[in-house]
Structure to design on (176 residues):
C-alpha cells in the first residue's frame, strides 16, 4: 500500500491577498456586530488581554531597544510573521485600527511593515509573534539580568499566550 501525502490546502499565510484580508475582516466584523450580547465575556477577556499587553509591551520595547539596533541580522528582516485568527479577534474586539493587509502575501516575502527604523505598526497592532519571540541576544539579557522586569517577561508572555487561547475558545463558543 502506498500512502500519499498531499500538500496542505491551507494557504500560507492566511488572508495573504488584499481581497482575502478584506473578506476575513469584513466577515469577522459582521459576526461580532451580530453577536454583540453573546460576546460580552469574550470582550472582557480581550480587554484583560489588552491590559496584560500594556504591562508587557514596555518591557519588550526596552529589550528591543537594547538589542535590535546592534543586531547584524535582525529577525524582522527574515522572519515570516503573520496575523493569525487570535490576532484578528483581539484587534476587532478592542477596536484597534486594522493594518491595511496581512504582513506577507507569500512565504518568500519580507514583512511589508518593516522600515529602516523598525516596524511601522504600533506594538498593539502587530501580530503576537512579533512580541513573544525572544531572540538569543534578548534571552541572554533576560537570563543574566536580575531585574524584576526581565525576570517577569517570560511569565508575562506565557500568561498572555494562555489568554489568547482562551479568547479564541470563548469567541468560537459564543458565536457557534
Amino acid at each position: 500500500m502506498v500512502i500519499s501525502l498531499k500538500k496542505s490546502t491551507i494557504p500560507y499565510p492566511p488572508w495573504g491577498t488584499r481581497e482575502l484580508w478584506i473578506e476575513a475582516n469584513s466577515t469577522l466584523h459582521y459576526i461580532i456586530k451580530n453577536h454583540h450580547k453573546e460576546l460580552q465575556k469574550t470582550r472582557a477577556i480581550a480587554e484583560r488581554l489588552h491590559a496584560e499587553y500594556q504591562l508587557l509591551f514596555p518591557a519588550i520595547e526596552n529589550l528591543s531597544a537594547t538589542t535590535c539596533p546592534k543586531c547584524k541580522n535582525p529577525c524582522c528582516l527574515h522572519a515570516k510573521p503573520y496575523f493569525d485568527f487570535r490576532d484578528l479577534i483581539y484587534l476587532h474586539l478592542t477596536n484597534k485600527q486594522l493594518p491595511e493587509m496581512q504582513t506577507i502575501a507569500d512565504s518568500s516575502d519580507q514583512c511589508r511593515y518593516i522600515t529602516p527604523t523598525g516596524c511601522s505598526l504600533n506594538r498593539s497592532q502587530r501580530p503576537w509573534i512579533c512580541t513573544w519571540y525572544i531572540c538569543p541576544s534578548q534571552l541572554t539579557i533576560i537570563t543574566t539580568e536580575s531585574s524584576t522586569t526581565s525576570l517577569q517577561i517570560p511569565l508575562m508572555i506565557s500568561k498572555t499566550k494562555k489568554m489568547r487561547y482562551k479568547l479564541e475558545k470563548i469567541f468560537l463558543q459564543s458565536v457557534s
Summary: The chain has a mean pLDDT of 91. The CA atoms of residues 86 and 168 lie 6 Å apart. The radius of gyration is 18 Å. The beta strands are 114-115, 118-119.
